[in-house]
Design the sequence.
């Protein structure tokens, strides 16, 4: 490629990267609004989360198309191709985070509309804050092209998994003690599961950054190997 073509390619790549980060900001906002709406009983916030899912889906389609066109026009190789392929993977995970935020909002809407006496008291705000921070950390790592945060995000994902299991046990106990709370307990369980899945997606995003920067696929390796690969030791 000549100099003009390289400049055009860099500009297109940067435009996609910027839009991906904007998409990440939107899904982080969706998640924050879903948890806030659930915690405060604010139906308007929940409805906004559900409405914004369409924007996320539209961005996924547009960004996937932009990535495909970049590959077709410029035939990138080595690190450039790795970046484009990484962004395609990240776009998919971000869209799925948006889907989970919408699920939280829909379940939250049912809880708010129900009799509060039959809604189990389960603490979700702490684990929700954790996954929001994981998502923001992964997006920041991508923005700075710095994979060193990945091991910490993976460790936090293990904490989120453990918290989810604790919530599940707590809800089972509530349902056994009082069958009247079963319906709402299942709603809370679905919300907790969505939060846990968002943690998984945030972990995926952080691992993609390691692959993009270091050229090593670390998705199925332990934390110690991830630390070595990311340079976080």
Sequence:
């Amino acid at each position: 490629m000549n100099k003009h073509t390289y400049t055009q390619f860099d500009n297109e790549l940067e435009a996609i990267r910027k839009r991906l980060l904007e998409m990440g900001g939107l899904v982080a906002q969706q998640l924050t609004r879903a948890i806030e709406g659930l915690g405060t009983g604010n139906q308007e916030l929940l409805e906004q989360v559900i409405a914004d899912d369409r924007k996320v889906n539209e961005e996924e389609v547009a960004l996937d198309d932009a990535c495909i066109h970049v590959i077709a026009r410029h035939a990138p190789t080595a690190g450039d191709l790795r970046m484009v392929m990484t962004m395609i993977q990240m776009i998919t995970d971000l869209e799925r985070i948006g889907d989970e935020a919408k699920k939280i909002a829909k379940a939250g809407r049912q809880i708010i509309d129900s009799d509060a006496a039959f809604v189990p008291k389960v603490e979700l705000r702490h684990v929700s804050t954790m996954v929001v921070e994981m998502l923001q950390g992964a997006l920041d790592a991508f923005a700075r092209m710095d994979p060193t945060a990945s091991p910490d995000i993976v460790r936090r994902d293990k904490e989120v998994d453990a918290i989810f299991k604790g919530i599940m046990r707590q809800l089972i106990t509530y349902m056994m003690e009082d069958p009247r709370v079963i319906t709402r307990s299942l709603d809370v369980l679905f919300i907790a599961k969505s939060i846990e899945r968002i943690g998984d997606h945030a972990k995926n995003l952080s691992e993609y950054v390691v692959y993009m920067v270091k050229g090593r696929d670390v998705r199925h390796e332990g934390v110690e190997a991830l630390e070595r690969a990311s340079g976080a030791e």
Observations:
- The helical segments are 3-40, 43-74, 78-112, 125-144, 150-177, 182-214, 223-230.
- Residues 64 and 88 are 6 Å apart (CA to CA).
- The chain has a mean pLDDT of 91.
- The longest helix spans residues 3-40.
